[in-house]
Design a protein that fits this description.
The protein is mainly alpha-helical. Helix content is 69%, strand content 6%.
């Protein structure tokens, strides 16, 4: 009964935070003059996707989870540039707490800069601008707290859950536009696209390469300890950022009307543009996965605990072997990411839609990958919670 109550409480906390988040994206900020946005602006769909459609109407949570998404990459770049932050990263748990505090401050700072940048060009009175900037900055801090509440007391990662919620809020108008232009034929195409993306995403997310690891035996007194065997699971990290980044990069030629040699990049159905989009997604996915995984650290940890890969000498040789195996896995995963990104684009190409509607392709991929990832993470978290409750009496 306690397990059910705990699961129910976590589910209710997650749903309650999502409701509060969507209300904050609907409540208008004070002292803000709302302007009607251009319906077919070339970059509007990207901003809608990242902010939940609130950047043009400027509600209290105008930036959505965009500052929360931007803060970790900026902090990682600062860690590389500032030795003090690099030393904090190497201090273990104490340094991680300090970096977490810096990440929070950086998130609020990015929200403040975004509010100043958005409201500074509206020509409002100084007092109204100050009040609106303060409200949007406080909204960013509240969104940050909501993500932490989901992470600590709910299910899954808070940033991913709220990003999924705001993307789902943007999709219905796009699907209505698609239905108006193509009719019910779009339903069959979208069903095939959805099923294909879901299957490939689950296969890549659940697939792993198990590298066997053997631990050396140690004699303590008259007893032998160790000698057990285990494995290192190598996976391809799932991410939606390569597809979004590639779509943003291909949207830049839309803003350059004078460049006639880029005319083919403006045609959403051009095979050359689709090929470039596929290559960009594969390249960005490979680079992101290669940076995210450090095989030298894994090899050093194996040496520290007395483990080794059978047939491979410990140290640099193990790191080179793990890097070789991991590079092949990353290459396959990047290829699958490119295929997943191209499937909705090809489906929309068959429907012959206008250039405004292909946002559905990128957004559909983002939503499906997030749904699969959130479902898998939530399932693992529920199983871990049940195992913890099951073994608590024995641990006591």
């Amino acid at each position: 009964m306690n397990d059910r109550a705990s699961l129910r409480r976590r589910i209710l906390v997650t749903l309650g935070v999502i409701v509060v988040f969507r209300l904050g994206q609907s409540v208008p900020a004070p002292s803000v003059t709302v302007r009607a946005p251009e319906a077919d602006h070339p970059l509007r769909w990207i901003l809608d996707l990242l902010t939940g459609g609130g950047l043009f109407t400027l509600p209290l949570f105008a930036f959505g989870v965009l500052p929360c998404l931007a803060a970790p990459p900026v902090l990682r770049a600062l860690i590389v540039l500032i030795p003090r932050l690099a030393a904090l990263r190497d201090e273990g748990e104490a340094g991680a707490r300090v970096l977490k505090r810096y990440r929070r401050r950086l998130t609020v700072g990015l929200g403040l800069l975004g509010a100043i940048g958005v409201l500074g060009f509206r020509g409002q009175e100084a007092l109204d601008t100050v009040v609106a900037v303060a409200c949007l900055t406080v909204g960013t801090a509240l969104v940050l707290r909501l993500t932490e509440v989901i992470t600590e007391r709910g299910f899954g990662d808070g940033v991913r859950i709220l990003l999924l919620a705001q993307v789902l809020a943007v999709l219905p108008p796009e699907f209505l536009r698609l239905h108006e232009k193509t009719g019910w034929g779009a339903i069959a195409v979208m069903a095939v696209v959805t099923l294909s993306i879901t299957v490939i995403t689950i296969v890549v997310a659940q697939g792993q390469r198990r590298v066997p690891v053997q631990y050396a035996k140690r004699m303590i007194g008259r007893r032998a300890f160790g000698g057990t065997s285990t494995y290192i699971p190598l996976r391809f990290p799932q991410a939606n950022s390569p597809a979004v980044l590639a779509a943003v990069l291909l949207s830049v030629p839309v803003l350059l009307p004078g460049a006639t040699w880029l005319e083919w990049l403006r045609d959403e159905g051009d095979p050359r543009r689709i090929a470039v989009y596929f290559l960009l997604v594969c390249l960005f996915a490979f680079m992101r996965a290669a940076v995210a995984q450090d095989m030298d650290k894994v090899a050093s940890e194996l040496v520290r605990v007395g483990g080794f890969v059978p047939g491979i000498r410990p140290g640099n040789w193990t790191a080179e072997y793990l890097e070789y195996v991991n590079r092949r896995i990353i290459a396959f995963g990047a290829l699958c990411s490119g295929v997943v990104a191209v499937i909705p684009v090809a489906g929309l190409g068959l429907l012959d839609v206008s250039p405004r509607v292909p946002v559905v392709g990128v957004a559909l991929q983002v939503v499906l990958v997030f749904l699969v990832g959130v479902a898998l993470d939530t399932t693992r978290q529920i199983q871990a919670l049940r195992l913890q409750r099951q073994y608590e009496p024995f641990l006591r």
